[in-house]
Amino acid sequence: MKKTLLAALLTLFVLTGFAQITTTQATLSRWSQKKGTFILWYGDGKIVKEYAAFQAEYEDPYTEQEVVNELKKKVFKSNKYIGYEFKGNFDCNAAQSYIAREMNVKLKDVQDLRVGNCTQLYNPFKKAAAPTVAINKAAFDAMNPVIAQREKALLNDGWKKVYDEYGTDALASEVKLKAGYTYTGLGGFYADGDTSVTGKILITNGENILTGFETYANNNAVLLEINDYYPTKNQSVAIFSVHSTPQKPYKSAIAVFEKPLDFKRDFYRLLDARTDGFNAYKTNRRGMNTEGFYSYSSAISLGINKAKINETEATIEYMLVMDMLEPQTLTFLENFIPVLQELPAKGYKAEEYKNTGGGDVTELTKDGEDVMLLVSYPAKNEVYFYLFKSKK
User: Which H or E element spans position 22?
Assistant: First the structure.
């Protein structure tokens, strides 16, 4: 019977050698090898299901574990990290051949991107004698014009830049989060005419993806943005990162911004923005609907990941989709209810009813025009929030 990598990875595979490596300190003789490939294993317990390999260079006084910790920031797998192995003087081809031998599968199965891949890092791991901030001038010259307009808009809107970096690879930074602040990430890749390039920007906690956005190259570049991320309670750090597909030394950039969190301020800004179809808050362009209109990410999220601005022939709407079991939904409702209670005094009429699908609806109108809708389906744990503007 033909043995595929998928079948092999779903069977119990005890990595005795790998576990031994990750629980012992690197020796001086081993660390004398300045080049090689790190293989990071991902799975459930000791069952390997995915891998990520990096051809890298390093210099003292980096420890092997420090290199691994940095590499893990570049990897986002559906399975948990369970260990690593370092192969001195191996390039990506040699590493993938080694993985195939260890797994007893064909090389083409190892090269299946659904299971893993190997990336050549073009920046060695070095520690400067004194703290310095190195600027990759070529990357800055290529990428700064791509992100400069959005960066200027964010700064003019009261955001403060807390981190930026320009390079030629995936970029990642661990950002310390302040209580009572919200965060926006900006970045991208210079594709230089390669329209097949896609990029993604992610926020993770080191283990799980918290939110993200992915899109394709347009006009020689991929521009990426994650807007208005509210940290969860007791969350003190997050990793912001950008990644390209295919993984090549594209010039890249990432920047992170912070701003004091103010739900009430942002809600009323959205309410005012209905008059021009929320144009000031449209960021990433998303898919096109059947009526030929694009949807967009929103620069204001109200604490819900992937807030969207949609358009049809009849309306333009700001939309949030929420899961009742997610903590961010409870935070939204706690912030929203006091604001909702203010609206009748401002001329808005509230009505509560059940719709034909069994949902609990709170609807707001003003001067006979539909303005807002909050719909919950407790049996499905679903909540939907809309702000409308009729085009007629």
Answer: helix 16-22
Q: 182-214 pLDDT, tens per residue?
A: 999 999 999 887 888 889 999 998 778 899 999
CATH number at residue 244: 2.60.120.380
Listed in sequence order, the residues at least 6 apart from 154 whose beta carbon sits closer than 8 Å to its beta carbon are: 161, 184, 186, 257
Identify whether the C-beta of residue 284 lies closer than 8 Å to the C-beta of residue 212: no
pLDDT tens digits along 341-368: 999 999 999 999 999 989 999 999 999 8
Torsion of CA 374, 379, 382, 384, to 10 degrees: -20
Residue 218 lies in a domain: yes
User: What is the SS3 assignment for 180?
Assistant: coil
No. of H helices and E strands in the chain?
Answer: 9, 20
The SS3 assignment for 21 reads: helix
- 335: nearest Cα among 266, 279, 383, 250: 266
Residue 127 or residue 353, greater confidence: 353
Q: Choose one of 85, 120, 155: the last residue of a domain.
A: 120
Q: What is the pLDDT of residue 23?
A: 29
- Indicate whether 99 and 54 sit together in one domain: yes
Tell me, yes or no, whether 293 lies in a domain.
Answer: yes
Asked if residue 128 is part of any domain, the answer here is no
**Is there a contact between 98 and 56 (Cβ–Cβ < 8 Å)?**
no
Given 239, 260, 281, the domain boundary residue is 260
Domain span including residue 221? 137-260
Cα-based distances in Å from 226 to 21, 178, 377: 37, 18, 28
Q: ∠ CA 341-344-347 to the nearest 5 degrees?
A: 150
- Indicate if 103 and 194 belong to the same structural domain: no
Helix (H) or strand (E) segment spanning residue 289: none
